[in-house]
Amino acid sequence: MDIGVERSVTYLYGLQSHGIKPGLTRTRALLGSLGDPHRSFRSIHVGGTNGKGSTAAMIASVLGSRGYRVGLYTSPHLIDFTERIQVNGRVIPSDRVWAMTEKIRQASDECLSEPPTFFEATTVMAFACFAEAGVDCAVIEVGLGGRFDATNVLTPLVSVITTIGLDHQEYLGTTPESIAFEKAGIIKQGVPVVAGRLAPGPLSVIRREAMEREVSCVALGEDFDARGEAPEQFSYGGMRRRYDSLSCPLPGRHQLDNAACALAALELAEARGLAVGEEAVREGLRAVRWPGRLELVSRRPDVWLDGAHNPQAAEALAAHLTALSARRGSAAPGCLILVVGMMRDKDRKGVLSRLAFVPGVSHLVVTSAAHPRAADPLELAHDCEGLGVPVAVRPTVAEAFAHARSLAGPGDTICVTGSLLVVGEAKAVLEGTTVSGLRG
Questions:
Q1: What whole-number distance in Å separates Cα of residue 320 and Cα of residue 123?
Q2: Alpha helices in 185-304 (DSSP H)
Q3: Cα 265–289–345 angle (5° rounding)?
Q4: Contact between residue 69 and residue 135 where contact means Cβ atoms under 8 Å apart
Q5: Across the beta sheet with 242-246, what order do the strands follow?
Q6: Residue 145 — pLDDT band, cuts 50, 70, 90?
Q7: pLDDT digit string (tens) for 328-369?
Q8: Is 357 helix (H, G, I), strand (E, B) or coil?
Q9: What are the E-state strand segments in 7-155?
Q10: Nearest to 423, CA basis, from 412, 413, 435
């Protein structure tokens, strides 16, 4: 590694120590010093507690199928940092990451009184990379909340808020309504908003914020919807478009809601000059991939990876695992072995209690990702008390996964969950590689 690249790597790694500092001042200053690259492309901005990544991936896949050059910015990554910044499904080259990091480091030294956070730096990097690549449109996933998220410097074609749940309460508030207010911060004057499956309280907050900004708000179940038993075959009814016999490979019935939000956002974007068309919708949905979210990675035993990290996501995962158990039937039900690692600040008991009662759960293997915010496995084991499932403690994801494999027969199922960081480490074990240290 040459001296310049090594210095850039060290700088980017070091920004993780600054944690989360909400606000847009540093992001705007950095972007300004780089010529405001985010103003050179159209965008669609996707927020929400759960489902925002899947929704963003669907939108990007459809636009790519239409022939656009499409940027996709998501977080966190599973294995390699470059996964966060993609153009037409291809991750940016590592040499561009380090070259861009050096530009951001120099800009930070010149225009900031304090270093940017890791997420602020990666967001600026993504926008600069998209401008450099000449993308027609970028699909941008919100990192945390919305109002003060680094991505909120955009003025997109459409804003999307998929779901509202209790998560990141130390930053966003302790009620669904307060969290909805923070997420509604991405709503801009003149930019229509798509609202996903929201409870009446949060939806009223979103509608109020949209009204104050004098923009339309379309809601799932009222203005558009997706109908079907599973994403493998469903129909969409929107404001002006209707599509039957659509197919999406992302498993889980909750993906119908995400698909509906994606297609509603594309309808609104089309009305604002971004042509899409039915063929692109069908092909884009068929082609979408979103690793680490209800991903089946191997057979005999079946191994599923899912980054469910809050009770709402765990409910969706539990529903999928329950449906799998029902399809197997009583003749060959098999056992379900859960490998769970979580962050300290999450509702651990809420997640564990939803997963432990899925039919067929035989073992819980608790573990920890290699991350400073990870919960100690002994704490997780304590959280499992009273669930009535045997619990094993393993200090690393690799050891936990190996133990789960030793327990599983060919007809059983292993599910690794609780955090995308844990999922990424398990995926790295399966692929025989290592996870990037840039995990924030």
A1: 33
A2: 200-212, 254-271, 278-287
A3: 80
A4: yes
A5: 225-230, 233-237, 242-246
A6: confident
A7: 766 567 899 999 999 998 999 999 999 999 999 999 999 999
A8: coil
A9: 42-47, 70-73, 85-87, 90-91, 137-141
A10: 435
Over residues 412-422, the mean pLDDT reads: 96
**Res. 317: pLDDT tops 70:** yes
Q: How many CB atoms lie within 10 A of CB 284?
A: 25
**Main-chain phi, psi angles of 108, to 5 degrees:** -60, -45
User: In the 8-state DSSP scheme, what is residue 376?
Assistant: P
Paired residues of 303 in beta bridges:
298, 414
417 alpha carbon, distance to own chain's centre: 14
**Nearest Cα to Cα of residue 427 among 46, 131, 41, 76:** 76
Rounded distance between C-alpha atoms, residue 167 and residue 343, angstroms = 12
Burial, 109: exposed, middle or buried (Cβ in 10 Å; 0-12, 13-18, 19+)? exposed
Which residue from 434, 316, 394 is spatially nearest to 77, judged by alpha carbons?
434
Q: Are 363 and 390 in contact, with CB atoms under 8 Å apart?
A: yes
Q: How many CB atoms lie within 10 A of CB 233?
A: 12
Q: Report DSSP state, residue 153.
A: G
* Residues 79-106: tens digit of each pLDDT: 998 999 999 999 999 889 889 999 999 9
- One-letter amino acid of 325: S
User: Is 95 or 273 the better-scoring residue by pLDDT?
Assistant: 273
What number of other Cβ atoms are within 10 A of residue 172's Cβ?
A: 23
Residues constituting the chain: 440
Q: Are 338 and 365 in contact (CB under 8 A)?
A: yes
Q: Are strands 42-47 and 158-161 parallel, antiparallel or unpaired?
A: parallel
Sheet of strand 158-161: strand arrangement: 90-91, 85-87, 70-73, 137-141, 42-47, 158-161, 193-195, 217-219
Cα→Cα distances 309→66, 366, 394, 422, Å: 33, 14, 19, 10
How far apart are alpha carbons 356 and 173 in whole angstroms?
A: 28
Buried residues in 1-38 as b, exposed as e (16+ CB within 10 A) = eeeebeebbebbeebbebebeeebebbbbbbebbeebb
Quote the tokens at residue 32.
């300004």
